[in-house]
Amino acid sequence: MTLEELKQFIEANKDNQEVQTYLKGLYPLTPEGVTAFLSTEEGKKLLQPRLDQHFTKGLETWKEKTLPSLLDEEIKKKFPAETEEQKRLRKLEEELASERQARVKSELVNKATTLATQKGLPVELVSYFVGQDEDTTVSNITALENIWQQAIEKAVEQKFKDNGRTTPPGGGGGSGQKNPWKKETFNLTEQGRLLRENPELARQMMAQAK
Length: 210
Prior knowledge:
single chain; 0% strand; mainly alpha; rod-shaped
């Protein structure tokens, strides 16, 4: 029997128990033999999936059990927790900043109240016009004054229209009565009284104050 015939016989009877036992006797399983087989391409194909599976399982275990603690340690290194002294200083700084902000707000409210009183504007609206600084607050109060004046003028005009009257020619208030629409004698209470009691005179005074 030639070598080729022997190979064909073994291939044809590879599932035969006697042939398998015989072949195992020819090639006993030893560490060296296993190592030599695993070094072959066929052996690598058999071994690689098992290695990949083992590596993946080990990596997942490492992520689950080891990685979180490593991350915590790294975070603590870069962002160490505040000491008691640092906490005390931070709290003190926050309190000082809060007090400073409250003081500035109070000063601005007082400034706005003074301006509103001088201009005869409703003081109860002051808090809505307080800005972040004095310039903004003054600007807001000036805007309120303009809006308030325009509203009063429209109210006077509407009053005349409702009564079917027009403003009489000639000057009014020649009797020496103070004009509550003029800047130096501005008075909302007097404006309201004139609008109710004598709208024609109120219109004349408004025109004179422009």
